[in-house]
Amino acid sequence: MDEERTAGDEAAPRDPGPPSGGRDRHETPLERADRNFGELLQELRVTQTGVQILFAFLLTLAFSPRFAALDSVQRATYIATLLLAVLAAALFTAPAALHRALFRRGAKPQIVQMSSRLATAGLSVLVLALTGSVLLVVDVAAGRAAGIAAGAGTFAVCAGLWGVLPRLVRRSLARAEEGTDTPSP
Question: Which helix (H) or strand (E) holds 134?
Answer without folding.
Answer: helix 108-142
